[in-house]
Specification:
The chain has helices at 47-56, 73-82, 98-106, 128-137, 183-190, 202-207, 227-242, and strands at residues 9-10, 20-26, 41-42, 45-46, 61-68, 88-93, 115-120, 143-149, 154-157, 163-167, 173-175, 179-182, 213-216. It is of the alpha/beta class. It has a single domain, classed as Spore Coat Polysaccharide Biosynthesis Protein SpsA, Chain A, CATH 3.90.550. Strands 1, 2, 5, 6, 7, 8, 11, 12 and 13 form a 9-stranded mixed beta sheet that branches. Strands 3-4 form a two-stranded antiparallel ribbon. The longest helix has 16 residues, at 227-242. The radius of gyration is 18 Å and the shape is globular.
Length: 243
């Protein structure tokens, strides 16, 4: 494979593996990190590689479509080849926001792919148990999200920073990825919508009145956004190694 040719799509694997496809979105600007967070090393392995390896080693996953910014396409291709991530079937250029990027990934699905998982490239500690729970939920629901209970007290404030009230946290959860959706229902729900208004995939179903199933996530399944998150992820990895 010629890694110097400025292609926008790469065919890394052509394996006919049974399972569910995954779109990994890794085209963010990493503004709060100050550098490309996908390439930060976690115990010697880049964040993005750890994320992709989680799906590579999950038997329920057929292939991975990686969505990236234009200026990282060749670099990510090299990473996938170096770490022998054979389930990565395509690396495609993303759009101007998350949902546009997801749509770019959907274009690489096979015609008979009915369901797909969508995952943040910067969530490297996802495991097969979460992945399988989301897939299982798609047997009965059109959209499934992993969640964890909110631990902290949550307060609602006004524009001046004054507390309005304390929100009952028993009814609150923190949403994670991968989120699973039925492809046709997802595309239908998106029709005529402003894609900039959605911060996750399940909220698109909520906007059209569809029910979204929640399944148990994991507090370790954090998103790498700030330098502090890197330290937390490393601590989790060292804890797993010590066990």
């Amino acid at each position: 494979m010629n890694a110097t040719k400025p292609l926008l799509q790469f065919d890394i694997a052509n394996q006919n593996i049974q399972g569910v496809p995954v779109i990994v979105v890794a085209g963010g600007s990493s503004t709060r990190m100050g550098q490309n967070k996908q390439l930060i090393g976690l115990c010697g392995v880049p964040v993005l590689v750890r994320t992709l390896k989680a799906f590579q080693h999950c038997d329920a996953v057929s292939n991975i479509i990686l969505v990236a910014a234009n200026d990282t396409l060749l670099q990510y291709q090299t990473l996938c080849e170096s770490y022998m991530l054979t389930k990565v079937s395509d690396i495609v250029e993303g759009g101007n926001n998350r949902q546009e990027s997801v749509l770019c990934g959907i274009k690489s699905l096979k015609a008979d792919d009915e369901i797909v998982l969508i995952h943040d490239g910067a969530r490297p500690l996802v495991d097969s148990e979460i992945i399988n729970r989301v897939i299982g939920g798609l047997n009965e629901f059109d959209a499934v999200v992993p969640v964890v209970k909110v631990k902290d007290t949550i307060k609602q404030i006004d524009e001046n920073g004054i507390v309005i009230k304390t929100v009952k946290r028993d009814d609150l959860v923190q949403v994670q990825t991968p989120q699973g959706v039925r492809v046709k229902k997802y595309l239908t729900a998106l029709e005529g919508k402003d894609l900039n208004t959605f911060t996750d995939d399940a909220s698109i179903f909520e906007a059209v009145g569809e029910r979204v199933l929640t399944v148990t996530g994991d507090y370790k399944n954090i998103k790498i956004t700030t330098p502090e998150d890197v330290a937390v992820a490393v601590a989790f990895l060292k804890e797993e190694t010590a066990e």
